[in-house]
Amino acid sequence: MVYPVGLEVVVIDDGIGVQFQYLIGGYNQTFSVSREALEEHFGLALAGFSVKDRDHAILGSFLHGWERIRDTAARSRRVPSDHPIVLTTSDF
User: What is the value of pTM for the model shown?
Assistant: First the structure.
């Protein structure tokens, strides 16, 4: 899987979402996108997947929606924060 340059993405807590860092206004902020948001807005469907395949599907869905996810993160009014900012279905 090819990620945008400099983007580090990990599946978190047994697939409850994806965590990434994004530079906003000179601040390297950690964000996460909930699995529900990936399912509702970016076509993630996990029925019947093994754990390995599940993580691959989650990351694929994240990449599919990267531009919209990036734009949503950039509009976040919660930056900067010392804690990860969770993007949920209501943010999209």
Answer: 0.85
